[in-house]
Amino acid sequence: MTISSDALSEPGPERSLMTAGRVPTVTDISPDLNDHELAAALATATGSVLTKVRQEMIDRGTDHWTLKDVGDLSAHEFIMDVLGRTRPDDKILSEEGADRSDRLDAPRVWIVDPVDGTREFAEPPRVDWAVHIALVQNGEPVVGAVALPAEELTLATSPAPVLPPAHGGAPRVIVSRTRRPPAAQMLARRLDAQYIEMGSAGAKAMAVVRGTADIYAHSGGQYEWDSCAPVAVAQAAGLHCSRLDGSPMLYNNPDPYLPDLLICRPEWAEQCLEILANPDR
User: Fold this and answer.
1) pTM over 0.90, yes/no
2) What are the structural domains, with CATH classification, of the chain?
3) Which residue of 1, 54, 62, 278 sits 20 to 30 Å from the alpha carbon of 120, by its own alpha carbon?
4) At what angle do helices 224-236 and 201-210 cross, to 10 degrees?
């Protein structure tokens, strides 16, 4: 599912949650939506809340750190309120909330990142920040949505985004604008790839989904909320998603630290895994 602001103005479960500039409220999202629709609607609505907060605080001359903190808290509270009303029996793991051990035995766990890329969120007019909403069952991310609010775009698991054709040139490896992880450097060197720089994990993963990058390899530290929704959407679009050693991305672990991942177009998966398995060649 790819939702633009124009599409959201049409009737239906993905309709716009902004009316005449109104900030969405918890009751705007119906509990009757299926899980895929709910994830997409919630990611989109949270993005609208954040966009409004961002602009209001910029207008007030708010400093960078306060903007980050207020954005995180506003988005977290909105998501918790909506999920608490629409899916009261489910458990939640949020970057901004206290972790509860009862999620480990729960059949349904929502894993969310209210603002993925808070640095970019707090540096307007940057657009490379995201909202992550995912549902995990039996360790697998079965539902997901990634909103890119500054681009007025949400990508979700059903119907899945259509993967664009391969661009035909050297592979494009996407990395942070401040750091190039060792795994990405290794792949870029061995594949003679070009670098693309971008902020948040969600924005990077969605760049591969959207066809503006080919490989996103991360090593050196992430948590489940950083990758769960992006992996759900990427897998639905037909991309390869795994740990750097090729093992599956599994979620709702006792320790949410999940330090590495590989998201790439399927035609690059075998070569990438071979290179990562043999770094000294």
Assistant:
1) yes
2) 2-156 (3.30.540.10), 172-277 (3.40.190.80)
3) 1
4) 10
